[in-house]
Amino acid sequence: MQDKEIELKFGFDGDASNLYEIFSHIGAVSNKTTLHLDNTYFDTEDKDLFSIHAGLRIRRGDDFSEQTLKVKGENIGGLHKRKEYNLPIEPVDDVPNLLKFPKDALPEDFDVESIQKRLKPICRINFTRYLFNLELLDSTFEVAYDQGFIEVDSSNKYPLSELEIELKETSVHSDELLNLFSILCTHLASNNIPLLLEPFSKMHRAALLQEQSSPTADFSELDKTDNFIDYVTAQVALLEKLYGYFLISHDAVLFSQITSLIDSLLLSLKYLKRRNFLAFIIGRKEPVEYKRDLQIIIRLLKSFHRVCRHVSKKMLLCRFRNNSKGIASCYEKIRLSEKNNKMFLIPLKLRLLLSLMAK
């Protein structure tokens, strides 16, 4: 019933009809399948589950119905890790039963019985999933392209187009998983798969769509770091978080803050390059040579930042003039630059590099 989900999640902006063929150039592909999945997510009026970073749903496919609980995990540069509990249910069941999940799945002080009585549907997320297996690097991955929509209410639908790559089996040690996915990302980039950053889960996006409020940037986490490596790591994490909010809100003020954060991150990376911090792979004595990789990261980030600076000014002007079409046009330019500069690579590659450095 319990499974630890480890997967990459990206937005997808292109023709998905040839994905199977593209991945056949990366590794061995098999078991091509299509599923139609209807998902209803549940929470209380007070969002008790969302407040502890948990997601609860009923999923129905062509020949199955199940209830799923996903609990708090972590997102490391697009690599999502979290525990997941799945239980089969009857087709007539229309509300998930929290009491059927293990007691230790939720916090001790979580009033499960009270929450159960107050559960209600909060959104539907329906999509067609095209999936297949990928054998690569002594590992088996499940590649899934999802196309559909998030429906918060009848008049508020959010299009869904994303690629998920979940690790199913591997002989790679857990300490090397970040490197494993980093190598996989390099293959994705070299095959020009049109990927975009997608920091938040489907459920998280649905919750933000419900709120319809403009989030504010909180830079206080940067002040809590003890050393320079941790500071840069916190910059990367904050950039992912704020960008995820921007993808939902299209907020011009928030994007200007993101642009400033990218500028600050570039300064940090240039300092990192000058200082030439030592980096080591666990179990090896020789330091890792990373300057070339860091130079590529800086080049891609600088190219994206140039577009961000230009578009950010236009976006603010459009906001002042209540020009919604202009804001939409700016948003499309940002995402195009993000795709062209392969920004989906940056968070994971940087997290891996920073994890190897001596603090």
Describe the structure.
- One of its GO terms (molecular function) is inorganic triphosphate phosphatase activity.
- This is Inorganic triphosphatase YgiF, contains CYTH and CHAD domains.
- With 359 residues, the protein is α+β, with helices and mostly antiparallel strands.
- It has two domains: 2-204, Hypothetical Protein Pfu-838710-001 (Beta Barrel); 214-356.
- It is 40% helix and 28% strand.
- The chain contains ten helices and ten strands.
- It has helices spanning 19-24, 48-51, 112-117, 177-190, 202-211, 228-249, 252-275, 291-320, 324-340, 345-356, and strands at residues 2-12, 28-43, 55-60, 65-70, 74-76, 79-88, 120-136, 139-153, 156-170, 195-197.
- The chain has an eight-stranded antiparallel barrel.
- Strand 7 (120-136) and strand 8 form a beta hairpin.
- The two termini are 40 Å apart.
- The mean pLDDT is 90.
Sum up the structure in keywords.
359 residues, 40% helix, alpha+beta, Hypothetical Protein Pfu-838710-001, 8-stranded antiparallel β-barrel, globular, inorganic triphosphate phosphatase activity
SSE blueprint and pairings:
Elements: E1 2-12, H1 19-24, E2 28-43, H2 48-51, E3 55-60, E4 65-70, E5 74-76, E6 79-88, H3 112-117, E7 120-136, E8 139-153, E9 156-170, H4 177-190, E10 195-197, H5 202-211, H6 228-249, H7 252-275, H8 291-320, H9 324-340, H10 345-356
Antiparallel strand pairs: 1-6, 1-9, 1-10, 2-3, 2-7, 3-4, 4-6, 5-6, 7-8, 8-9
Helix pairs in contact: 4-10, 6-7, 6-10, 7-8, 8-9, 8-10
